[in-house]
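Assess the record.
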Amino acid sequence: MLACAGAVAVVAPPGAAADLPPAPSVRFVLQLTTSLTLAPAVRDAAVHEVQQIWAREGISIDVASPLDAPVSTPGMRVLIVSAGGASARRDDHRWPVAELTGDGRGEPMAIASVVAARRVLDAAGLADGPGALVARRLGIVLGRAIAHEVGHHLLNTSGHARHGLMRARIDARDFADLRDGGFDLDDDAAHWARARLTRPPADALRLARFVYGP
């Protein structure tokens, strides 16, 4: 099992789909900085995965460099680094692919590790194959991990769901699966977010904390 971030949650199949409020229309900017060694194909796959996941929730993810993102636009910094994070733990096969932290100025920042994402592919037995396919899988893993951290920020929570995008631990093969199922926002969080993100985006990022049940 691969830890996405934080505490462990039991992975359970989603229940029947609930009637959700209409999805909001919110623009959110990722101020993205990547390692110089990151292949463009991996970057593009990661960005596409983040955009696809959050588009289902009515949130349009735009990508900009930290230098040209409008100051007034809601968003967060994202770093994709080559090295593994200090929190990576090989002893129990828990390798956080990304984590949400601060940038030293009180602003949110997500850091995703290419090394940790490669470990996911290794654990899933998917690290070998045509270069384009491996690059796509690597980008998908990074994108899902980043989308998870965006969820922590937008929901203003450190908690985790039992299934979906916000689960704490993800099986390696699920993490790298080319299909897009299994990474939607869970119904409880989606209800909460859709009821509140209809406000202007500047207000949406000052919402009360969302709390997952036991």
